[in-house]
């Protein structure tokens, strides 16, 4: 019996945001396909307030760095959000993001400014190391539950 899924988790995040008086919505598109394509689409669909999506996009691992699809998505988002007031979080509900000790990351418009050029880390699939150095890595440890990855975007 399935008690919850990614959509249930996304709706819970939206409910929490609305309880705080923040405009919020669930992105109806499941995160599926390349992380780059999913991120591009997700960032375009965001509006003022909170936008949440669930799914498990793909990352083509070409080097043995520390990271996973969520830290990779977060670092790509940090590039797109540089200089803005927006905040993006990507995390695995099971607490495990690839080969890292993180679950994902929370980035903002200052992440790249604090961390320097992210391209070498992206090309080495080493996004978690970069995000740990900037203080943006999320660490939860294994949660014992997996309903999908969640992405959350807040925009003023």
Provide a short characterization of the protein structure:
By secondary structure, the chain is of the alpha+beta class. Helices cover about 35% and strands about 20% of the residues.
- Helix count, DSSP H or I runs of 4 or more residues: 6
State the fourth-level CATH superfamily.
MOFRL domain
**Category by helix and strand content:** alpha+beta
How many strand elements?
6
Instruction: Return the domain count.
Output: 1
* Morphology call: globular
Mean of residue pLDDT values: 95
- Reading the helices and strands in chain order gives HEHEHEEHHHEE
Q: Identify the strand order in the major beta sheet.
A: 1-2-6-3-4-5
Highest CATH level, the class:
Alpha Beta
Distance separating the two termini: 39 Å
Radius of gyration: 14 Å
User: For the report, how would you describe the main beta sheet?
Assistant: 6 strands, mixed
Helical residues, percent:
25-40%
CATH topology tier name: glycerate kinase, domain 1
Contiguous low-pLDDT stretches (5 residues minimum) are none
CATH architecture: 3-Layer(aba) Sandwich
Proportion in β-strands: 15-25%
> Oligomeric state of the chains?
single chain
């Amino acid at each position: 019996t399935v008690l919850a899924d990614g959509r249930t988790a996304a709706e819970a995040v939206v409910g929490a945001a609305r309880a705080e008086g923040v405009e919020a919505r669930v992105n109806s598109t499941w995160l599926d396909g390349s992380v780059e394509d999913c991120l591009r689409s997700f960032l375009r669909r965001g509006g003022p307030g909170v936008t949440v999506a669930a799914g498990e996009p793909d990352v083509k691992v070409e080097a043995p760095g520390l990271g996973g699809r969520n830290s990779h998505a977060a670092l790509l988002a940090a590039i797109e959000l540089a200089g803005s007031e927006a905040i993006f979080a990507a995390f695995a509900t099971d607490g495990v993001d690839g080969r890292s000790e993180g679950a994902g990351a929370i980035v903002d418009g200052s992440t790249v400014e604090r961390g320097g050029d992210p391209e070498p880390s992206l090309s080495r699939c080493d996004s978690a190391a970069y995000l740990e150095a900037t203080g943006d890595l999320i660490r939860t440890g294994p949660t014992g539950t997996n309903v999908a990855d969640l992405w959350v975007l807040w925009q003023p």
